[in-house]
Design goal:
Length: 193
Amino acid sequence: MIAGHFGFAAIVKSRERAAPLWALMLATQWLDVLFVPLLVMGVERLEPVAGTRGGYGDVIIYADYTHSLLGAVIIASLSALLAASVWTRRTALVIGAVVFSHWLLDLIMHRGDMPLLPGNLGGFPRLGFGLWKAPVVSACVELGLVLAGAFVYSVAAVRAESAAGQRSRIAYVATGLVLVAGIITLTLNVIGY
């Protein structure tokens, strides 16, 4: 869901002009950014689904801290507090909400591997609707988010630049970057990189 997260960030940017696009893009991936060092240290892990090569959607992700429901709420809250030291309260809340949106979008894709509490404390059932079990459908959902994000962002950016009496070159370049980055990321995920 990496590419889909970027598409969602672009959608949010179209509505929240004060929030920097780079901050929204980072916020939407922040749980995964924190996951990487924990993965390297062996605290969190990936395991291929039995009988698969472990490609797109064929992994169980034991991100028991970064991707637990409570962990995501804590990380989103801390992110909003940090953002409040730089931007307005509204922008900080948007940043925090975008950080948490990662968990919600992953809930749709993941295969029942997301715990409620950090470290799977309490052993509650893990969550995930498992759209990754249908790789073509999940890739289409991600592509749809990327395309929607690029389109909605483009329309909002062109309107904002036109209202300011500026030409729309920057808006088109930024839209192109969102679109290209999203499609390349999704393609790499689908082919197993």
